[in-house]
Specification:
The protein is mainly β and about 260 residues long. The chain has helices at about 5-20, 175-185; strands at about 25-30, 40, 45-50, 55-60, 65-70, 75-85, 85-95, 100-110, 115-120, 125-135, 135-140, 160-165, 170-175, 190-195, 200, 210-215, 220-230, 235-240, 245-250, 255-264. The strands form five sheets. A four-stranded antiparallel β-sheet has the order 1-20-19-18, with no helix packed on it. A four-stranded antiparallel β-sheet has the order 2-3-4-5, with no helix packed on it.
Length: about 260
């Protein structure tokens, strides 16, 4: 066995150990009537986001305390959400219709009444998740490598876009090939900035979370590692009220669970 091969094996073992060094440990779960797209969370409640409905639940026992359902036929694919102050911001798209069009829909977090909107209109991608970090909005626009492909753009066209607080586009980045391969044929369905300044994102259905960072140069996000999870892709939310631990809420859509996990 030559030295170069031994060095390669050693590197791969070391790389694998580093990638798998963290994992998500389940704390508890709530089975609800419908859990299909994602979840948002604040200090007291979590919010289950489905295509055209939202339910609000207590974190202690999962009891439903508020409900909203679209009666207009306008909302076809609410994807994810984030609580900022007393508002719930949801990424919304016309998926699977084409050409792709997206918006941010805003709800009163207390009542779930719809109170505002911001439209991207026709955009080269479908808005799947939103976050607010360091004074800017961050929105992921998904593209797909299957029948939902639009205008010949496969999932390599998936883009993270940075906007000012007034929604002026500042910068954008491509996703690295490592995660695009894991996403395939779908795209990113969830994402959020961590307290450590790193970007965490999920795909459509794999029980994995991908850790990324902005590049020091170039147009592509840098892949750092993969964290195995219990929740299966889709939109997740970090519990910012957990001060001494990294807690996040995710979902398993096939059996309608909201899963609370701790990254260790």
């Amino acid at each position: 066995m030559n030295k170069s091969y031994c060095a390669f094996v050693f590197f791969m073992v070391l790389f694998s150990a580093t990638v798998q060094a963290q994992q998500a440990k389940e704390i508890r779960r709530f089975q609800l009537k419908e859990v299909k797209q994602g979840v948002a969370v604040d200090a007291v409640h979590f919010y289950v986001i489905n295509n055209s409905s939202i339910t609000k639940h207590t974190k202690t026992d999962g009891k439903q305390v508020a409900y909203w359902k679209d009666t207009t036929g306008i909302f076809k694919h609410l994807n994810s959400g984030i609580i900022i102050g007393n508002k719930l911001y949801c990424a919304n798209s016309n998926y699977p219709d084409k050409p792709m069009a997206s918006s941010i829909e805003i709800f009163d977090a207390a009542t779930l009444n719809h109170i505002d909107t911001h439209s991207f209109g026709l955009f080269p991608g479908s808005a799947t998740w939103i976050d607010f970090h360091q004074g800017h909005w961050w929105v992921a626009f998904a593209n797909y490598s299957d029948k939902n492909m639009d205008s010949g753009r496969d999932n390599r066209w998936t883009t993270l876009v940075k906007f000012t607080a007034q929604w002026q586009q500042v910068e954008s980045w491509a996703f690295p090939q490592e995660v695009l391969t894991s996403f395939a044929p779908k795209s990113t369905s969830g994402g959020a900035w961590g307290k450590d300044g790193l970007l965490y994102c999920t795909g459509h259905d794999k029980p994995e979370m991908y850790v990324l960072q902005l590049p020091k140069r170039g147009p592509t996000l840098r892949y750092l590692k993969t964290i195995p999870t219990i929740s299966e892709g889709q939109a997740f939310a970090f519990d910012q009220s957990a001060k001494n631990a990294v807690i996040f809420y995710g979902i398993t859509r096939n059996d309608n669970y909201v899963v609370v996990s701790k990254i260790e």
